[in-house]
Amino acid sequence: MKNDNDLDNCHQALYYAVQEAFVENLVKTSRVAGGVSENHLTHINKGKLAELSNLSKGTITKLTSNDPQDAKPDLETLCKLGHALNVSPAFLLMTQRDWSILIQACGTLEMLKNRDGDKERTLVDCLSKASMLQKIDDAAMAGLRFMNELTGENYSDAERERQQKGILAMTAMAQAAVKRQGSDARMFAIALGAILGDREISQT
Fold first, then answer.
1. What 3-state class would DSSP assign to 153?
2. Exposed / middle / buried, residue 202 (Cβ in 10 Å: 0-12, 13-18, 19+)
3. What is this structure's pTM?
């Protein structure tokens, strides 16, 4: 059982990782988000980004500082920047590790398109049944069953408690996003949510 100090350290590690990623993402997107002019990419300078996002130039300078600890944008600021850059605010906060896990998840989804192997058929069968479920709670449980089948791990073990909760939460969010779509979309949403949820969010 982690004490309060351990939990604070975990939260801090996550905070600093996202803070650093945000600054890096903002700088990178600004370098290319000006569009193409005469076959060359153009960047958005701080003044232009301030104008497009309705933020002060001082705020933009602080958010793109060499010291990531100066970057503490609130939700409204994130939304303004996302709108100015035509990027979802969520992606401005994604770390390299987030991208790596997302790419791995896409690879697993691609594997599910090959239904010749026994394992693939079992997983697709599990997802197909789950895609018929309308309740978010049922879909979240289906995500957990999918991960049990995919990894062969027992997510009811105490050591897997955080991953179990992550799988349930991410599957619920993914399924809610596609609940009005077809069964294929719901099937892959369950798989994607479950795979992304199967991680330790903080590495300390």
1. coil
2. middle
3. 0.80
